[in-house]
Amino acid sequence: MPDLFASLVTSRVAKRVGVPQPTTLRRYEPGGPLCDSPVLVAGGGRFEDGLRRSLRDLGLAVTGDGDETAGRIGAVVIDLSAATDPGELDQLRTTAAPAVKRLARNGRVVVVGTDPATLTDVAQVTTQRALEGAVRSLGKELRAGATANLVLARGNADAGVRATVEFFLSGRSAYVDGQVVVVDESAAPPPGQDADPARPLHGKVAVVTGAARGIGAQIARVMARDGATVVAVDVPAAGDALARLANEIRGQALQVDVTAADAGQRIVEAATSRHGSLDVVVHNAGITRDKLFVNMDESRWGTVLDVNLRSVLRMNEAILGNDMHDMHDRRDRRDRQDVNGGMGDGGRVVCVASIAGIAGNRGQTNYGASKAGIIGLVTALSAQVRARGITVNAVAPGFIETEMTAKIPFATREIGRRMNSLQQGGLPLDVAETIAWLSQPGSSAVTGQVIRVCGQSLLGA
Ligand SMILES: NC(=O)c1ccc[n+]([C@@H]2O[C@H](COP(=O)([O-])OP(=O)(O)OC[C@H]3O[C@@H](n4cnc5c(N)ncnc54)[C@H](O)[C@@H]3O)[C@@H](O)[C@H]2O)c1
Question: Which of 255, 373, 426, 458 is the most buried (most CB within 10 A)?
Answer without folding.
Answer: 426
